[in-house]
Specification:
The protein is mainly beta and about 90 residues long. Helix content is about 0%, strand content about 25%. It is built from no helices and 7 strands. The chain has a 3-stranded antiparallel β-sheet with strand order 1-2-3, with no helix packed on it. A hairpin with a 4-residue loop joins strand 2 and strand 3.
């Protein structure tokens, strides 16, 4: 989750930064059954200030997050991956 914002940068809890001027976020709809919208996906994502939200943002669509209890248990998965054990993330509608 986002810890703070500084000028044109977003700072995450783990210290990672996203520069809104140089980087491009990738946005996914709440209706898409992808790892990025699943409660079991452990990658960096944000709903912004609106919770529950209709959209989920990721900084890098190639950055993997660990699957916690889904079909690919404990494996690093891309945000666009899918499986049969999808469960909608509670931060989205």
């Amino acid at each position: 989750m986002v810890r703070a914002t500084q000028d044109d940068a977003i700072v995450y809890e783990d210290g990672a930064q996203f520069n809104t001027c140089e980087d491009t976020m990738h946005t996914y709809s709440h209706a898409m059954k992808l790892c990025v919208t699943c409660v079991r996906w452990g990658g960096q994502r944000s709903t912004g200030q609106n919770v529950p939200a209709y959209f989920v943002d990721v900084i890098d669509d190639r950055a993997k997050g660990v699957c916690y209890g889904g079909g690919y248990r404990n494996m690093p998965m891309l945000p666009t991956a899918t499986c049969q054990r999808y469960e909608k993330w509670v931060a989205i509608k």
